[in-house]
UniProtKB/TrEMBL annotation:
Name of a matching Pfam family: NifU_N
Native source species: Candidatus Dojkabacteria bacterium CG_4_10_14_0_2_um_filter_Dojkabacteria_WS6_41_15
Domain NIF system FeS cluster assembly NifU N-terminal residue range list: 26-112
GO biological process, one term: iron-sulfur cluster assembly
Protein's UniProt name: NIF system FeS cluster assembly NifU N-terminal domain-containing protein
Lineage top rank: taxon: Bacteria
CDD domains linked to this entry: IscU_like
Gene Ontology MF terms in the entry: iron ion binding; iron-sulfur cluster binding
InterPro entries, alphabetized: NIF_FeS_clus_asmbl_NifU_N
Length: 123
């Protein structure tokens, strides 16, 4: 696992939390086996993710993953975001396999992303 990258991304999380917007729909995901919870909020204009923020009560891997996700998709067209491709990019960056014990922690924000996409794209 890429511990240095996870630590660096986790340190950035405080900056994103400041941007959490009251009154905008939230998309939540939780991992009942470990208690991690993550919430995403996204604003779009013209189909593009203008701003995406998160907050969570989760382990450092989950929070680093949420930060990575936000950095990767902000500014992209929502319809062009391939969740499976983004998951693979995250796992490769974190030097993890989908079968790793902590992969469910790392992939939790992507479950919230799938909800966000369904809702905002009316899939």
């Amino acid at each position: 696992m890429n511990e240095h990258l996870i630590r660096k991304l986790t340190e950035k999380q405080a900056h994103r939390l400041v941007g959490f917007i009251l009154g905008i729909k939230v998309f939540e995901a939780s991992n009942h086996s470990c208690g991690d919870e993550i919430t995403l909020q996204g604003e779009q204009a013209g189909g593009k993710i203008e701003k995406i923020v998160y907050k969570g009560s989760a382990c450092s891997i989950c929070l680093a993953s949420a930060e990575f996700l936000c950095q990767e998709i902000e500014g992209k067209l929502l319809s062009a975001i391939d969740t499976e491709k983004e998951k693979k990019k995250l796992l490769a960056t974190f030097s993890m396999q989908e079968t790793d014990k902590r992969a469910s922690c790392a992939l939790l924000p992507y479950r919230a992303l799938e909800q966000l996409k369904k809702e905002l794209l009316d899939i």
